[in-house]
Specification:
This protein is mainly beta and 322 residues long. The chain has two domains: 222 residues, Jelly Rolls, CATH 2.60.120; 77 residues, Jelly Rolls. Helices cover 14% and strands 39% of the residues. It has seven helices and 21 strands. The strands form five sheets. A seven-stranded antiparallel beta sheet has the order 1-2-5-12-7-10-14, with no helix packed on it. Strands 15, 16, 17, 18, 19, 20 and 21 form a seven-stranded antiparallel beta sheet that branches. A hairpin with a 2-residue loop joins strand 3 and strand 4. The model has no long low-confidence stretch (mean pLDDT 96). Its cofactor is Zn(2+).
C-alpha cells in the first residue's frame, strides 16, 4: 500500500569547508557543531549524501526509497518521464566566511562523458551580505584559452575576472562553463542540478590544517570554460502574494513569493515543488493539516499534492521543473 504523502522536510546534511563559518547556525539555526561549516545540503540524492525525511510518519525514510516506491507521486508525471527515478535538483545553503575557490562546472555532455553525471547549472539567492562582499562571475571581457592560461600561470587570474558587489536579494544565474567564486561574507541559497562535479581553477594558495593545498583541476577545466563575457545577475519583480519569475531555464524554474496573506496554489501533478523560506515564517495548509516553516527551512511538496494554501508573512523561493 502506497503511503499517504504530505509536505516533506529533511535532516540537513552539514559539510565542513576550509572557507566555512558559523552563520548557518546564527542566521538559519542549523545544528552545526563546527566553526568551519560551509554548507547545509537541504535536499539531495547525491550518492553518499541522500536526504532523510525528518517529519511525519515517513520520518527516517530516505528520499531515494520514497521515490523508488512512488516516483510519479513524488517527482511528477513529466519529471519522471524525463529523468526516471533520479531527483534532478540539489538544494543548499552556503556560508562563506572566506572566499571560495575560483571554479567552473562542466555541461551535461562533458559531465556525462567524464563522470556519468548531470552538468551543474546553478543559481544563488543572496540571503546575507557583509559590507563590500562580492562575487566573481565570468570574465570582464571576452577572453580565450591562451589568455586565461597565461594569467593562471602568472597568478593574475583574478585581474581578468568580473568582480560584482552583492547585497541581500541579489540573484545570480550561472550556466555551466561560467568561472565563478562566492566571496567572503556572503550567505546564499543555492539551487542546482544534481551534481557534485566542480573543477577548481585557483584556491588563493590556501592550505588545510595539515599544510596541504587542495587539488586543482586545470586540465579538466580547459574545455569546460566559457571564455566569453556573460551577464549573470537576474532582475525580478517583488509583487506581493504572487509567484514572480526569477530564473526560468531547462533545468528548473525559480519564483520569488513575497507572502503577505493567504494564497491558494493549484498544481497539475507534472512536477514536484520545493519551497525555501528565506525570511519570516509561513504555513502550508493541506488535507486538514497545517505545516509550519521558518527562515532557513526547505520543504518538498510531492507532485500528487495539487491543491494547498500558503499562509503567513515570509519571503519564499518556489522551485519546480517546467
Amino acid at each position: 500500500m502506497k503511503p499517504k504523502l504530505y509536505p516533506l522536510q529533511f535532516e540537513p546534511i552539514l559539510k565542513e569547508r576550509i572557507w566555512g563559518g558559523e552563520k548557518l547556525k546564527t542566521v538559519l539555526n542549523k545544528p552545526i557543531v563546527s566553526k568551519i561549516t560551509g554548507e547545509s545540503w537541504e535536499l539531495s540524492t547525491v550518492e553518499g549524501d541522500v536526504s532523510i525525511i525528518s517529519n511525519g510518519v515517513l520520518k527516517g525514510k530516505s528520499l531515494m526509497e520514497l521515490i523508488d516506491e512512488t516516483p510519479n507521486e513524488i517527482l511528477g508525471t513529466e519529471v519522471y518521464k524525463r529523468f526516471g527515478k533520479q531527483f534532478p535538483l540539489l538544494f543548499k545553503y552556503l556560508d562563506a566566511r572566506e572566499d571560495l575557490s575560483i571554479q567552473v562546472h562542466p555541461n551535461d555532455k562533458l559531465a556525462k562523458e567524464r563522470h556519468n553525471s548531470f552538468g551543474k547549472t546553478e543559481m544563488w539567492y543572496v540571503l546575507q551580505a557583509d559590507t563590500d562582499a562580492r562575487i566573481i562571475v565570468g570574465f570582464k571581457e571576452d577572453s580565450s584559452k591562451e589568455e586565461y592560461l597565461e594569467h593562471l600561470h602568472n597568478n593574475t587570474l583574478v585581474s581578468i575576472l568580473d568582480d560584482v558587489k552583492a547585497k541581500v536579494g541579489d540573484v545570480f544565474f550561472l550556466e555551466t562553463g561560467t568561472v565563478h567564486a562566492i566571496g567572503a561574507g556572503l550567505m546564499v541559497a543555492e539551487i542546482q542540478q544534481t551534481s557534485d562535479i566542480t573543477y577548481r581553477l585557483y584556491d588563493f594558495d590556501r592550505v588545510d590544517a595539515q599544510g596541504n593545498k587542495r587539488e586543482l583541476h586545470v586540465d579538466l577545466a580547459l574545455d569546460a570554460i566559457n571564455y566569453n563575457k556573460v551577464d549573470t545577475q537576474k532582475k525580478y519583480d517583488t509583487k506581493a502574494n504572487i509567484s514572480n519569475t526569477v530564473v526560468d531555464c531547462p533545468y528548473f524554474t525559480t519564483n520569488f513569493i513575497p507572502l503577505k496573506d493567504k494564497i491558494t496554489v493549484s498544481k497539475s501533478g507534472a512536477t514536484f515543488t520545493v519551497y525555501m523560506c528565506i525570511e519570516g515564517s509561513f504555513e502550508i495548509e493541506y488535507d486538514g493539516f497545517t505545516h509550519t516553516y521558518k527562515k532557513g527551512d526547505t520543504v518538498l511538496v510531492p507532485a500528487e499534492i495539487n491543491a494547498f494554501i500558503l499562509d503567513g508573512n515570509a519571503s519564499i523561493l518556489e522551485i519546480y521543473i517546467s
